Amino acid sequence: MSSWRDRLNQLGSKTRFVVCRIFLHLAGDDVAMLLGVLNDAGRKAVAAEGEMDVLGEGLVEICQSLLQYDADWIAAANEGDVFWDEGDAGDYVTELFTESAQRYRSAPEPAPSSNAAAEEPLSLPATHHLVVMLTVAVEGEVPELETDLSSISALKAGLNALINLHYQGRLRAIQVHFSPAKLGDELSADQVLANFPELIPL
Fold first, then answer.
1. What's the pLDDT at 12?
2. pLDDT, the chain, mean
3. What are the two backbone dihedrals, phi and then psi, of residue 28, each rounded to the nearest 5 degrees?
């Protein structure tokens, strides 16, 4: 992502921002367990009204869980850009947020009424496919994220970098989306191919 424009702006001592989005497709009998981790982090973020420390702790927990389930990794992809203006970086974060939220079943449905909840079955089907989308804005340079993450070693380095960035206090925005977004929803292999065409097999 480095360019002549990067070097010119460095001379002007402007702040550098990296915005990136990571896609990770997992498949297996255990991936439904990750939905609990993802939804728990989401509930805490909502309760904290988006406070960055809470968002960061949630991101750390998610990244650690993803690393723990590396045997279930199937495919990945990443994209991003470098900005020298905070407003431009913020606009790109918003663009990625909107696009991620529109992905197949990546937004939770409104909470059901008490009557509707009573009618739901006690046993819900467990999805065997899960796609997680992590979007962050970071101040400074992050070589581990500014590269192709479509290999297992690179992806592990990228997830570990996200953990370290939280503890370094360099994260400026954090967004997490996942499909399916709730227990009981299922995501088939065909739906993954149709709705996440950028994924590259690991």
1. 52
2. 86
3. 150, 175
Give exposure, 107-123, as e/b (b: 16+ Cβ within 10 Å): eeeeeeeeeeeeeeeee
* CA–CA distance, 112 with 118 (Å, rounded to integer): 9
DSSP 101-126: HTSTT-SPPPPPPHHHHHHS-SSPPP
For 13-30, b/e burial (b = at least 16 CB within 10 A) is eeebbbbbbbbbbbbeee
- Distance between CA atoms of 136 and 172, rounded to whole angstroms? 7
Specify burial of residue 126 (Cβ count, 10 A radius: 0-12, 13-18, 19+): middle
Which parts of the chain fold into alpha helices (H)? 4-11, 31-47, 52-68, 86-101, 114-119, 152-168, 189-195
Flag whether pLDDT at 60 surpasses 70. yes
**Residue 132 DSSP SS3:** strand
Give the chain's end-to-end CA distance (angstroms, integer): 22
Contact 22, 134 (CB under 8 A): yes
pLDDT at 198: 95
The pTM (predicted TM-score) of the whole model is 0.86
Q: Where are the domains of the chain?
A: 14-105+126-201
Give the CB-side neighbour count of residue 14, counting CA atoms within 13 A. 15
